[in-house]
Request: fold
Amino acid sequence: MDKKYQQIVSRDWFDIDYWHQQQAVDGESVGRGVTYFFHQQKKRFVLRQYRRGGFLGKLVKNSYLYNGIKNTRAYQELKLLKKLRKAALPVPKPVAALIQVEGWYYRASIIIGLIKNAEDLFHYLKKSALSDEQWQQVGFMIRQFHNQGLYHSDLNIHNIMLNKKGKFWLIDFDKGKFIKPNHPQLEDNLRRLLRSLRKEKGKCPDFQWQESDWAWLLQGYASSSK
Reply:
């Protein structure tokens, strides 16, 4: 847990029914699981439970083999976010995690700060296009993470945010890891992002992205040396 929240966060914070009773739930987002948004003390937060994807996720939705607290996905994500925040990178503020151990397995949830007045690029591009300069900024931002050796396990258009001040952010660092800054595996992030853009364009012809935009992103990515 972040030291700032040690005297504030309780187990109730991880119970969405508790926030409903407080009339503090602002909304939710449905994906692999349900992500909830709530407010407390004039601040807004995100509550997310860890859930499996793929075929295994159909059999075992939200439990994982327990091998020590420091090896849990929630602990690892909080630790990673703290390191990225220390490096002044645009990521959400880590708040707290709940890890429930039951025999050989555990379930976990995480709370992070909500990025104010922001939406993911998927929803933004359904309404408006980014300028060439903005695509360069996206590429530049990704390179800043790669310069730190951060490998994002699921870099797609849903995990890049843009706020009303024009600043880009990166979210969802579950299963992320640090590797060597010049490691070839980092290029997988770019390929995954390109696949994500092409997929959304194929599903929605009005999606405001063109193949030529990718060149601007790569130009921004290349503008920051390793």
About this structure: Helices lie at 16-21, 54-59, 73-86, 121-125, 132-147, 187-203, 211-222. The first helix runs from residue 16 to 21. Residues 81 and 94 are 6 Å apart (CA to CA). The domain at 118-222 is CATH 1.10.510.10 (Transferase(Phosphotransferase); domain 1).
